[in-house]
TrEMBL record:
<dbReference type="Pfam" id="PF02463">
    <property type="entry name" value="SMC_N"/>
</dbReference>
<dbReference type="GO" id="GO:0043590">
    <property type="term" value="C:bacterial nucleoid"/>
</dbReference>
<protein>
    <recommendedName>
        <fullName>DNA repair protein RecN</fullName>
    </recommendedName>
</protein>
<keyword id="KW-0227">DNA damage</keyword>
<dbReference type="InterPro" id="IPR027417">
    <property type="entry name" value="P-loop_NTPase"/>
</dbReference>
<keyword id="KW-0547">Nucleotide-binding</keyword>
<dbReference type="GO" id="GO:0005524">
    <property type="term" value="F:ATP binding"/>
</dbReference>
<comment type="function">
    <text>May be involved in recombinational repair of damaged DNA.</text>
</comment>
<keyword id="KW-0175">Coiled coil</keyword>
<dbReference type="GO" id="GO:0006310">
    <property type="term" value="P:DNA recombination"/>
</dbReference>
<dbReference type="GO" id="GO:0006281">
    <property type="term" value="P:DNA repair"/>
</dbReference>
<keyword id="KW-0234">DNA repair</keyword>
<comment type="similarity">
    <text>Belongs to the RecN family.</text>
</comment>
<dbReference type="GO" id="GO:0009432">
    <property type="term" value="P:SOS response"/>
</dbReference>
<feature type="domain" description="RecF/RecN/SMC N-terminal">
    <location>
        <begin position="2"/>
        <end position="507"/>
    </location>
</feature>
<dbReference type="InterPro" id="IPR004604">
    <property type="entry name" value="DNA_recomb/repair_RecN"/>
</dbReference>
<keyword id="KW-0067">ATP-binding</keyword>
Amino acid sequence: MLTQLTVSNYAIAERVELQFNKGMTAFTGETGAGKSIVLDALGLAMGGRADAGAVRHGAKRADITATFDVSGIPEAGDWLAQHELDDDNDCILRRVISKDGRSRAYINGQPCPLNHLKELGGLLMDIHSQHQHQSLLRKDTHRKLVDEFAGVEALAADTREAWKTWNQIRQRLTERRQNADEAEAKLQLLRYQVEELDRLALEDGEQEQLEQEQAQLSQADAVLHSSHQAALLCTEDETSAADLVRQALQQLEQLPVDVPALADTIQMLNEAQIQISEAGDNLRHFVEDYEADPARLAEVEERLSAIYQMARKHRITPEELPELHQRLSAELAELDGGEGSLEQLEAELESQRARFDDLACKLSEARAKAAAELDQRVAAELAQLSMPNMQFITHLNRSNGEEPMPHGLEEIEFLVSANPGQPARPLAKVASGGELSRISLAIQVVVAQTSTTPTLVFDEVDVGIGGGTAEVVGRLLRTLGSNGQVLCVTHLPQVAAQCHQHLFVSKFTEQDATFSKIETLDDHGRISEVARMLGGVDMTEHTIAHAREMFSKGQATHH
């Protein structure tokens, strides 16, 4: 529910601060006083379009802040929590518009994209304006209203999504069929490439191991020769390392006296003699066991040559061959009997069409049931609005074609018959301006009664209505207000007399500047304003008495 609205430097409003209650709130005043400023400002707070003309002349920016109590709106609370913007039960929407036309949006003090204001605003408030009379002539509006009345927006969205998926698969299938020759050539190439890589069967790290083995095998003679010479130098030659160490030990052992300082050195030479002897033995065993394998060398070099050749063919490094093999195999699997094949796409298309048909049939059943109820309830409202002979029909026109439609199996159009015996025809071809206004109000009242949106706004939807019908309009709006919150701009005293809260809008000029002023009227002020709306400038005692009677009757109205 809207609890507070603050408007600064918007249009001719320099500063407006308003408190709102539950029930029906009416805005009245002379034509041009700025009654629609509040509702237009609310539209901007809900994410509506803005331009530099919205900023009051001479000001740098317009600032609009709307505060809502969301304690009774779980959908809004969930949205705020999901976006980490929740702040107890309060929700503050703010819009700042600079004189160059740029704007900024905030939710609970945090900057946000404009579409977030629209999403959240749609959960908090529903605005019906007199301009919707024109939208009422469009079929897409009719479908939207029926789906809202039936409570099948989610089902309709699922149906559209199913159609979108079906259409995407159909387009892919069409492209595959049109490019069948090219696709077949690509498929053959992929098969050949994958078969080659399958035969190569290169494993990760295999190339590096082969290169190491090749280096060893190709230098077998050099390894044997060097190892043999090393063995000789260790133990077998007359001047071998072992013999020289032995001679050094003999020299130290023949010292004429015991020299303790040389004990560690003698120990080291003894250990060296042992190490050299063991190294010599190991070298002899290596030379005896080592075998050069020309056949294995040829095998390794042939394998490496095949790897290098395959890499050059695909213009990549040998290390990249395993990844290429995996990627081409996956692409082949997708085209050859997997996802993306003609057979698979045809199966997917059939499956998705069945899903669409199932959703669309359920949607059609719900629409047909809702349409019958909507017709009955709109007819009842039209009778109250002095149009008892107006027949209202929600026509569901099933498509005869095989082609699915994004919005289901039928087009929806509102038809009316102004007089008994006349065929029902589209609104645009039958209804006059005044009739269209009343039909629009009847539809909006019926749809609003099933709406979960707590705040409903009606901007001069009672244009072209007067007399006893105007009193009925007031009762309808008051009934809606008793179930939630209704804001309405009206020129009709019969409507204003029935509101729970009355705001009077006026304008004045000061120092060549025009200002708009909005004040909350008490009972005396409300009677005076209803009298002004009844009698114009000159208010007689009779007019005031009539206004008092109308006010008393309106406040006693309960539905």
